[in-house]
Specification:
Layout lengths: L1 H5 L4 H6 L1 H10 L3 H20 L11 H19 L7 E2 L16 H11 L7 E2 L4 E2 L4 H11 L3 E5 L2 H13 L3 E5 L5 E2 L3 E2 H8 L2 E5 L7 H7 L4 E7 L15 H11 L2 E7 L17 H6 L4 E5 L10 E5 L1 H9 L2 H4 L4 H14 L3 H4 L3 H6 L3 H18 L4 E12 L2 E15 L5 H10 L5 E2 L1 E3 L2 E5 L5 H18 L3
Parallel strand pairs: 1-15, 5-8, 5-9, 9-10, 10-11
Antiparallel strand pairs: 2-3, 4-12, 6-7, 11-12, 13-14, 14-17, 16-17
Helix pairs in contact: 3-5, 4-5, 6-15, 7-15, 8-9, 18-20
């Protein structure tokens, strides 16, 4: 064994090898980091030999060095590749939280890239030649779209809820219906956020029924706010009752209270006119009398992660001056992406359809069927041994939004011989290139083209072909 171990070359000798020098240059690694990779590879071989588990080429041989450099290259790629990767979402779930929710429009990506790669007027007033405020950059667009008196942006809607409660109701009572004490992703609860903010939660009504009288009877001299939380991630059906925004706004005004509505999903475009869901449109809620509202930027709005707060100017001014406003503020790239996204809402229908979320939500069955059939035909050509069929299915909206909405779609279902659907899904995720995420149902791998571009469809077809060929006996 000692003789075998002595055949393992030392690190400094490996570093002088031309293959090592070439590989180091190609990987773009400094001398010490590349030396560490070599050391780790050699240590791995030593441990395998000492444990009796080594089955590779004889140390010191040409084959040994070839395998060693291949292992070093693979280790470097794994260690220094980006953890955050682009993936292809073939699930059909438009706002897939695990896959990053809303895709940005080309205009948003272009504007974000331009601002990120240069200096900008983030906090500089070009007209006055003096310090400006980042709050001003997209406020005008939010006001124009929603009809609000003022607006501001924070890093997500949970932050927006926290800031509103902390700045406007800390130490005071906030009345909320029991049926609206929601828990969002990651076990974040409205009740917990309220507790952290310093506001005191007053629950009224029951899980399924809350009346206006419940709010009225709960108001005391310590009450600062009536709060309505839109239950965007679940639906209660049957024997239910909730109080409309107009009635709550009127009651709040009578009692000199703030009426705050957490809208969550951030609907600026009325999807219900296409028969999709019943999500409240932000402008309508403000028109109904809400003092202030907040909502997400990366859900149905179709922009980057952000929390948008809109409403009465005196309330928004208090939020802007609060110390937490700096803690929760967004950066220039988020503002750039949000500005470009919001700009589409004040242009025309064509610009609006450039927002991927809206385009995917409104995709018609005929178009989806054509896309699924074209994809299936391409897969059949590259995978002659596989069974491929086009099927009717449904897409989910996702992102804790419209839980009761199923969008009719067409998808391609693939059965590949010699491999299970689960095994195929693993190969799709782990393949070289862009990972592909699909659905599995009854031993079929399902590809919903609603969330797949034409270019991505070609990538998936090519990947399936490569996998099938790899399964075929030589």
């Amino acid at each position: 064994m000692n003789n075998i171990l002595r055949q393992i070359p030392p690190v400094h000798e490996m570093q002088r090898d031309e293959r090592a020098l070439s590989l180091q240059e190609r990987l773009g690694l400094e001398h010490s980091r590349f030396a560490e990779l070599i050391k780790e590879a050699l240590d791995s071989v030593r441990q395998a030999i000492l444990s009796g588990n080594y089955s590779g080429p004889e140390p010191g041989s040409k084959e040994f060095l070839i395998r060693l450099f291949n292992n070093i290259e693979a280790a470097a790629e794994q260690k220094y590749s980006f953890a955050l990767q682009k993936v292809i979402n073939a699930t059909g779930t438009i706002l897939h939280t695990n896959l990053g929710r809303a895709r940005l429009s080309e205009a948003a990506v272009k504007h974000m890239s331009s601002i990120a790669s240069s200096y900008s007027n983030l906090e500089y007033n070009l007209e006055k030649g003096s310090r400006g405020s980042r709050h001003d950059l997209v406020e005008g667009l939010v006001k124009e779209i929603t009809g609000a008196e003022a607006a501001m942006i924070v890093n997500n809607n949970a932050a927006a809820v926290f800031l509103v409660l902390r700045a406007l109701a800390s130490g005071s009572e906030v009345i909320v219906s029991r049926g609206e004490l929601v828990e969002i992703g990651g076990s974040f609860r409205i009740s917990s956020i309220m507790q952290e903010s310093g506001a005191r939660l007053v629950e009224v009504g029951t899980t399924n029924k809350t009346h206006l009288r419940d709010y009225k009877e709960a108001v005391t001299e310590d009450t600062a706010m009536l709060m309505k939380v839109h239950t965007s991630n679940f639906k209660i059906v049957g024997f239910t009752k909730s109080v409309p925004a107009t009635e709550l706004a009127e009651e709040a005004a009578k009692s000199g209270l703030i009426y705050y509505e957490d809208l969550g999903s951030g609907v600026l475009y009325d999807y219900s006119k296409h028969g999709i869901g019943e999500e409240p449109v932000v402008s309508e809620v403000l028109k109904a009398g809400a003092s202030i509202v907040s909502f997400s930027g990366d859900k149905l709005l179709g922009g980057p992660q952000a929390g948008i707060i809109a409403g009465q100017k005196d309330l928004i001014d208090k939020l802007k001056k609060h110390q937490l406003a700096r803690v929760l503020r967004v950066d220039k790239m988020t503002l750039a992406a949000l500005e470009a996204t919001l700009s589409a809402y004040v242009k025309d229908e064509k610009a609006l359809m450039e927002i991927p979320v809206i385009r995917d939500m409104l995709a018609g069955k005929d178009d989806l069927k054509k896309r699924a059939e074209a994809f299936a035909a391409e897969v059949r050509l590259g995978c002659p041994e596989s069974e491929v069929r086009v099927m009717e299915s449904t897409s989910m909206v996702g992102g804790g939004t419209m839980p009761d909405v199923e969008l009719p779609t067409f998808a391609a279902a693939v059965r590949m011989p010699g491999i299970t659907a689960v095994e195929l899904a693993v190969k799709l995720r782990e393949q070289d290139g862009v990972p592909i995420i699909a659905r599995i149902r009854q031993e079929e791998t399902i590809f919903d083209l609603r969330t797949v571009s034409e270019e991505e469809a070609g990538i998936i077809a090519a990947c399936l072909s490569k996998i099938e060929k790899g399964l075929s006996p030589e």
